[in-house]
Every structure is written in structure tokens, then in C-alpha cells.
Amino acid sequence: MTGSLTNPDVAGPAPDTGAPVLSVRDLRVSFPSEAGRVDAVRGVDFDLYPGRTLGIVGESGSGKSVTSMAVMGLLPDYAAVSGSVTLGGRELLGLDDEAMSGVRGRDMAMIFQDPLSSLTPIFTVGGQIVEALQVHQDVAQDAAWKRAVELLDLVGIPRAAARARSFPHEFSGGMRQRVVIAMAIANDPRVIVADEPTTALDVTVQAQVLDVLRLARAETGAALIMITHDLGVVAGTADDVMVMYAGRPVETAPVDELFARPRMPYTIGLLGAVPRVDARQRTPLVPIVGNPPLLINQPPGCPFDPRCPVSLPECGEHEPALLTVAADRPDTPFTGGDPAAPHRAACIRAPEIRDGLIDGGPVYPTPELPVSPAAAIPRERRAAVLELSGLSKTFPLLKGSLFKRRVGSVHAVTEVDLDIREGETVGLVGESGCGKTTTLLEIMNLRPPERGTITVAGVDVATLRGRGEERELRRRLQMVFQDPMGALDPRLTVFDILAEPLRALGGSDGVVIGARVSELMELVGLDPEHTDRFPTAFSGGQRQRIGIARALATSPSLVVLDEPVSALDVSIQAGVINLLDELKAKLGLSYLFVAHDLSVVRHIADRVAVMYLGRIVEIGAVDEVFDDPRHPYTQALLSAIPVPDPAVERSRRRVILSGDLPSPTDDATGCRFVSRCPLHQTLDETQRARCTDEVPALTGSGGSDQHGSDQLNACHFR
Amino acid sequence: MLRYLVRKCTGWLLMIVAATNLTYFLANAFLDPRANYLQLRPPRSPEQISRSLAQYNLSPDTPLLERWWSWVTGIVLRWDWGASPIGDSVNDQISFRILVSAQLVIGALILTTAIGIGLAVYTASRQYRFADRFHQGLSIITLNIPIVVAGLAVVLLAILLNQSLGTTLLFVAGAQSPGVTGFWPLLVDRVQHLVLPTIALVITGYAGTHLLQRALLLDNINSDFVRMARAKGLTRRQAIRRHGLRTSLIPVATSIAFAIPALFTGAVLTETIFAWEGMGRYFIQTISKNDVHGAVAVAAFGALMTAIGAILADVAVVALDPRVRVS
User: Fold this and answer.
1) Which pairing describes strands A357-358 and A240-245: parallel, antiparallel, or unpaired?
2) Domain A375-623, CATH
3) ipTM greater than 0.85, yes or no?
4) Which chain A residues contact residue B247 at CB under 8 A?
5) Could B233 and A101 be called an inter-chain contact, meaning their C-beta atoms sit closer than 8 Å?
6) pLDDT value, residue B77
7) Which residues of A touch B238 (CB under 8 A)?
8) What is the DSSP letter of A485?
9) DSSP-assigned beta bridge partners for residue A191
10) Per-residue CA distances from A700 to A419, A674, A713, B145 (Å)
């Protein structure tokens, strides 16, 4: 399967010669803007050694992507770039486009974030790889095509010779990212820059692509710059880490050192704000208050000062330099023993911070974990706010230009049973295309479904008569959307946005509505004085709070949350998750929480349902499912999630699924997971036949030792 | 591909037949050829008028369906599109005028497209620099110049040029001079006549293509795949040309193909200013002179041009975008 990537010049990974392959010194980038000069990157230094991976971590606007684009020479002309970027001793800054194009693709290759848009739609993937080869090498068309097929085979494209003639739209996102990687390694580059290479992908596909990236790096011996906001990805891939904030590195260290002994309050905050999929104990997340600075007319002093919980008056005077910090304990050997990669932090209090603690106490005040009063009552005795029974939804597949005829069906949701009790959060998880959103939309529709029943707050939606009854039920059921920018009408003030649901339900008393709006603003932690502002005046996290306030306006009993935090940066995300936790406890809400980020689900949900191709394959209490997943799909899904801990990442065994999510068009008999199932491979002939012929029912594990467990899974053999 | 084209052509043929017949009935309802005879001195009696019209199949005394039937059979059997109320053959007029219009329009169309797209590539790669802003401003100005103003200005300048040269280098009226014979002299003469109207049409026409193509190209220049092409090692210019331009040409090609029918019958003012006897003027003349058969023939020609434009657009899309599988 694995093709050879032999090039006479390069045989295997280059030995560590001790000299950095890429050196960046005092890199500064600024852009003109209407509000003034934006200093996007303000002095970045790093050395990249052959064969090593440097992870650059930061939130949006921290300058990590701009740094990589500056190194590649891909910034627009109006960007002012200064400093020095040397590749193998050759200065790259100041080279013109023509000279740079000789370096790009040959010595330095880049992988972009969005695989769906980074391939030219009108050329075949093979042709695009051939182009990459022929730009730099004098190879004939036939030889180049043969090599392109080899490369596609190497990155794991099945039937590479045939698929090379396909166009990008015929590939899935993960497959397209493999093509981009093949293109990046086509000329055996010395440096590969990967800018959020897996952010747009599902976790199981992310695990595959990270594997391919590791393979590609091993084959070429290139040094890798891994830019990401995901601390888990960094922990699993990087050797050294650079944390960026407001256009500057604020902490650099070898990966183990950084995760074990962060010295800069921002790094500590980032680590504390990420929910962990392997967290047994439920501890509240620690949000970083405030928002990142705008990088226009920066005041003097540390840019993190306004958000820092341990800031001193001196912090506002000078921006601290990035200095080497002494090892935490003099008696233990310095873990970052590589003198080329010392632990450096830009904080005047770094010497006081040891093991992530300052003066023996936590850097960030730990918020209290609110406990829902409903949690005291056993689940079975609580009333159900939502019950789905046998819910199914199909979409017709039509063909023909003038007269559409039905040629098949997409089985988006098939026989889903789910119930949510009072004061409970149920997480619905699965990869894109698994039917999560369709399930939500079917619930929000408040119409009798195609098959099955939907019961909201004890009322079967099929029995609703007239708009009045529907509106009454609608009051009990509200929704929060994924994109906080798109979900709020930009031409309504926040007051109007929050008053709209109240008016829609018949409220007309201006004083009552005004009081309720103020109450809602306070409830979600916003200043009631700001209700006359438009949504654009708020940051992403604040907008999502407004979206939550709008959902709460009608005092619902169930709030449906569709990926409510996936568009937010981690430090902001933690605040919104804590808010949801708090509201649940305070108002006795139930949540149906749809997310693809399983760490968030583990943190917030009480129960979790895992969906695959329209069916629930496993359901149960969140800790049981996460600690002891039974269904092979759940096992694969959980093992694919990167954990922000390099030691754990190294020791974990991954179940990597092959292939992509198949399309749910034909309702094949048997288990829908069978084409990708790792367990199926190990079974004997008769057992396999059962997998392909019989639809597995959602049943409890036979002879469960945990009494009272209602963990169910849909696998014949688990 | 061939089957696809045959199917497309059949569809358009049916469309042309339907549109032409519909126009025939509409023209008969709104145009009254008798009016042409009312002005004649000595005045004719209605019987005389009807008799004169009857020989051209235009008499209102003959039932409409009967007239229609002889009109249709005339076209189908003899390719005879009828005659005007005063007896001029429509066939003669049209065949001569199509050639005149084609001379005027095709040259202008090619130049407009080439200049528009070329300028778009040039300015889009220099977004917000002086050249871009200058050409954008210029295009917005020329886009708003009425063809009459442009035409007269060109005429005025040409007259000045001719005067200063002391000889007629560029003719300001007509499609050709009478009495010129021989291939080369005729060609030179034609070009001398063609230059000015073409310049007028190009001045007022290129800006639309330029601005549309520039906007589409800019979308693509800043796209991920052009950046990816640069990251592969293509220079900025190569990446724009190979990856950005071709993708953004598709909608422009479609819009140009569909502009062809409008150009053929819509160049009325240009034809009037430069005294060219083209299709545009003929269209106006037929309507004002109650020439039912002439107007219907122009409509049929317009429908044919639309069909050709649409098929050209399809062909352009298939040629530019290999993803489109013809089936």
C-alpha cells in the first residue's frame, strides 16, 4: 500500500546537523487599516531544527497564521514585513516574488486549513500534483504523472491511479487534505508549514490526517511548523511549543515542559480553559475574562495585563521580554534539556510561578461548580421534557432535469429513541452527516415526523391543534445556534432581539418587557445598559450570550443547543460553558446539546448519545460511555480525540478508522458501521454475516456488573 | 458531446419557431400596413389599398390564418420571408444587412472582450494601486457615456484628423464607398469605414466586461486555491493566470455569449450615427413602416442569435470547466 518516496538526493530523514533549518528573528508584520496600523506580528523569534516539529498555539488574532504567511512570503503587498527569515542560511525576506517562488514548494511547503477550498476546482488532483512537480523539477509529463500517483498512494488515497483523474469535488474533506499533503511533500521540502490542517475536519478524520502528516514528515525528514488553536493536537504532534498572544510569543518550551510546568499566566489560562475528554472528575473550567486586544495603538505594558488575574502595577509599564526561566526545581534535571530549546516566558512574575501555581495557590480563581437541584432526584423519577420514539426522516434523491423522479432516499435519521429528563443535559455527538442537525430540526419543527413520535413536555406534537397550542409549546422549547454572527439580526438592537420572543408570545406591556430584558441581560452576564447597542458592537462570546438570553426569554424548559461554542476561542468558550452550567442549575433547564467536540460534551452533559449515519449506536450516562465505551464506533471516536497532555498522547493507543463516512443513501441491511468497523475484521464468517444481515438493536451489555446502568449500545457483539 | 449539441439545437429550433409565429400574430395585431397607403396622393380607395396589399399577402381582408398559412409555406418551401407593404423583398434586405451588422458587431465584440478581460487581469493583480484605481475610474466614466456622445465625439475627432492630414483617412459615414473594386482596395476601404464605429462601440462596451471580470477575478485571486498554487511555487502572475483566471472566466463567457443577440439588433444608434444600414436600423424601420414581414423576420433573426449565444455559452462552459459532464 505504501508507495516509495525515494528521491536520489534525499534518503530518509536528514540527520540532525545541529544547525537550524529555518531561523526567524524579530519578525514584525503590520497592515494598514481604516482604524489605524494593525501590528499583527510584533517580534517573533524562533529556530526550527531539521526533523523537529514546532507547534505554534494561539487564539484567533494572535498572529500565528500571519507569521506563517510571512515566512512563506504569501502576505499581500500592502503588509509591511521586517526582521529576518533565513532558510538554510539564505535570507528570504526581501526576495521578490519570482525568487520566492523558487523556494516555495521546493524548500518550504504549506498546508492550509480548509481543504475544501485549497484545491483548484477545475483541475484534476493528479494534474495539480503534476504542476507542483513540474514547477520545480524538469520531469516529463509521464514520469510526473507516475510520481503523482505514487504520492497519492503514499498519503493513503485508495485506487490512486484512477482517483488521480478525479476532480477535487469528488473527494471528501479528509481525502482532499491528503491530496494537499501529497502536493506539499512532492518536492521533498525541508520545511512544511501546516496552518490549522485539521481544524475543518471531523475528529476521526483528523486522527487519520495527523497520521498522514507524521508519515509525510518521516518520509521527507522535513521540519514541521504546526499552527493550531487545539492544545490537544499540539500535545500529540509537537516537540517544541510557542504560545502566541497579541502578535508575540509569550512562552516557548519543549512540549512536555510547557504542559507540565507552564510559567506564563496566559498559557496556564489556556490549559485551564480546555475541557478534557479524559477528565474523570467534573471540575469547572477556568475562563480567561475579557477579550484579546485589537493590536491597534497598543498601550505600553504587557498586552495580557487587562485579563491577567495576577497582574501587578508594574505590568502596565513595560512589555516584558521573552526570557529564559530557571528550572522549577534546581535539584531535578531540566526536562527541556535541549539547550537550543530552553523554557522562555514573557512575564515578570514567571519566576514566582511554579508547577502552574503562584505562591502555592492557583493563578486563576476557580469558579464554583453549580449543582442542579434536580440532580438530587433520581433520573427515573424526574419528568421527561422531551421524548423521541422511533423518529425517522428521509430525504428523497431526485433525478431528471424536467420531471424529477425519485431514485432513492437519504436516510438521515432512522428510528431514534431519546428522552431528556428535567434538569438534564443530553449530548448528541457524531461526525458531520450523522443526522444530529436533522434530529434537531425535526424536534424544532413541532410537526408530526415521518415516522415515530415527538413528545415535548408531555405533549405529543401530532396532537397539536391550531397555532395557539403550537405557540404555547414553542414557548417551552428554544434554540441556540452555532454561529453567533449569523444568528442575530444585525439591524435590530439587543433590546429588540430579546423583546421579540416576548412580543411574539403576546407580551405587549412595555414596562414588563423592559424589565424582563434587563433581567435576561444580567442573567447571561452582560450589562443591561448595553441593550440599545447593535450586535456588531459585541464580541463573539458576548453575542453567543445574547443568543442564549434570547432563548431564555420565554422561560423554556428545554433549550436545544446546536454547536453553541464551536465558533468561539477556547478562553471565551470556557466562559460560555460555565454560563450554561450555571443557568441549568439556577433555572432548572434541560439541554439537548449537539456538538462534535466530545471534550465539551463530556464536560457539560449528563448523558450522551452517539450517532452514526442516522442511528444512535450508543447511549448512556456520560462518564460510563466515555470511560467504558462499548460500541466500536464510540471507541474509535473517543480514541481519536487529542488530549492536551503530551505524556497521555504518547501512551494512548488510537483506533484509527479507515475511510470516510459512507453516504446514507441505500438502506443496506445490517449494521451501518460495518464498512469501517475494526471489530468486524476480527470476527469469524458467521458472526460477520450477522453484522451485514441483521440490524443491531440498542441493547444493554449482557451481564452488566454496574447495577442501575442504562448504557445501551447497538452492536451484536458488545 | 454531439448528442448533447443536437438535443440542445433541437430545443432551440422549436423555441425559434414558436417565437417567430407568436411575433407574426402580434405584428399583425399591432401593425397596420394600410396606413402606408393613406398618405399617398391621389388618395387610394380602401379596395385599391387592399388589392395592392393582397399581392404581398398583407391584405386585412384575407383571414389571418389564411395569410399565416401562405406566409409559413412561403418560408418552409421557398425560404421566402415575404415582402414589405411596398413590395421590397425581406430576404434581400436581411441578407444584406446581416453582413453589414456582422462587420460592425463581431469586430467590436472581439475587441471589447479582449480589452475588457486583459484590463481586468492587469488591474485585478494591482488591486487598489494607482493603475487599478485609474482604470476603474476610467471604466466607470466610459460605461456612462451614451453611445451617441461617444459616436459624435469620435466623428468630430476623425474629421479633425482628416482635415489635418488633408485626405480622408477615416470615413465617418457608410459601410463602404461606391465604385471600389478589387480585393485589396475593397478591404482597405471597408476597414477605413469600420474603424470609427468600432472605436465608438468599444469605448462604451469594454467597461462592462472589465468591471465584471475584475470583480470575479478578485474573488479568485484572494481564494485559497490561488494561494495554494503560489505555495506550490508558482509566481503570483502564473497562479492568477492558470488557476484564478480560468475559473473566473466561466460567468464572463456566459454573459458575453448572451450579449450577442442584443448587440446585433441593439446597435441602432451606432448605425444611425455612422449611417450603416444594419439590422438595428432595419428593426426600427420595419416597425415604423408597418412592415409586418420585415419585423417578424428581424424577430426570427433575434431568436436565432439568442439560440446561438446560448449554445456558445454552453460550449464555453464545457470548454472552460471540465467538471461539467455533458450528458
Assistant:
1) unpaired
2) 3.40.50.300
3) no
4) 120-122
5) yes
6) 92
7) 101
8) T
9) A108, A223
10) 16, 20, 6, 79
Q: How confident is the model at residue A559 (pLDDT cuts 50, 70, 90)?
A: very high
Asked if A101's CB is within 8 angstroms of B321's CB, the reply is no
Q: What is the pTM of this model?
A: 0.82
Structural domain boundaries in chain A: 22-238, 265-276+303-362, 375-623
Nearest-CA distance A73 → chain B (Å): 9
3-state class (DSSP) for residue A40: strand
CATH number, span A22-238: 3.40.50.300
Q: Do A77 and B222 touch, CB atoms closer than 8 A?
A: no
Where are the extended beta strands (E) located within A267-403? Answer: 323-324, 344-345, 353-354, 357-358, 361-362, 384-399
- Residues A204 and A308: their CA atoms lie apart, in Å, by 36
Distance of CA A675 to the CA centre of its chain: 26
Contact B323 A119 (CB under 8 A): no
Residue A173 in contact with partner chain B when CB distance is under 8 A:
no
pLDDT tens figures, B253-274 = 888 888 888 888 778 888 889 9
Which cell numbers in the block locate residue A518?
434587563
Q: How far is B116 from chain A (nearest CA, A)?
A: 23
Query: Which ranges of chain B have pLDDT less than 50?
Result: 326-327
| pLDDT, mean over chain A | 85
pLDDT band at A401 (very low <50, low <70, confident <90, very high): low
* Long-range pairs of B75-84 with CB within 8 A, sequence gap ≥ 24: B81/B293, B81/B296, B81/B297, B81/B300, B82/B56, B82/B57, B82/B292, B82/B293, B82/B296, B82/B297, B83/B56, B83/B57, B83/B293, B84/B56, B84/B286, B84/B289, B84/B291, B84/B293, B84/B294
A375-623 shares the fold of A22-238: yes
Give A4's DSSP letter: P
Cβ of A97 and B322 within 8 Å? Answer: no
Mean pLDDT, rounded, for A55-84: 90
B204 to chain A, closest Cα gap in Å? 33
Contacts of A302 (CB under 8 A, 6+ apart): A308, A311, A315, A316, A319, A320, A346, A347, A348
CA–CA distance, A222 with A238 (Å, rounded to integer): 13
Could B232 and A105 be called an inter-chain contact, meaning their C-beta atoms sit closer than 8 Å?
Answer: yes
Question: Is there a contact between A627 and A280 (Cβ–Cβ < 8 Å)?
Answer: yes
CB A570 within 8 A of CB A270: yes
β-strand pairing of A53-57 with A223-228: parallel
DSSP letter at B83 equals B
Closest-CA residue in chain B for A400? B327
Report the gap between the CA of B244 and the closest CA in chain A (Å): 8
Q: Is there a cis peptide before residue B42, judged by omega within 30 degrees of 0? A: yes
pLDDT band, residue A339 (cuts 50/70/90): low
Q: Which of residues 445-484 of A touch B (CB under 8 A)?
A: none
Residues with Cβ < 8 Å from A704, sequence gap 6 or more? A711
Any B CB within 8 A of A110 CB: yes
Q: Which of A376, A355, A114 is nearest to A257 (CA)?
A: A355
* CA–centroid distance for B283 within its chain: 12
- Give yes or no for residue A496 having a pLDDT over 60: yes
Count of other CB atoms within 10 angstroms of residue B111: 16
Q: Quick one: cell of B117?
A: 478581460
Q: Is the pLDDT of residue A55 over 50?
A: yes
For chain B, the residues whose C-beta falls within 8 A of a C-beta of chain A are 128, 223-238, 242-243, 246-247, 320-323
Judge whether A20 and A85 are in contact, CB under 8 Å. Answer: no
- Mutation target vs A (from B216, B225, B245; most A CBs, 10 A cutoff): B225
Rounded distance between C-alpha atoms, residue A382 and residue A371, angstroms: 16
Judged by CB atoms within 8 Å, which residues 130-169 of A form the interface with B?
A: 131-132, 135-136, 167, 169
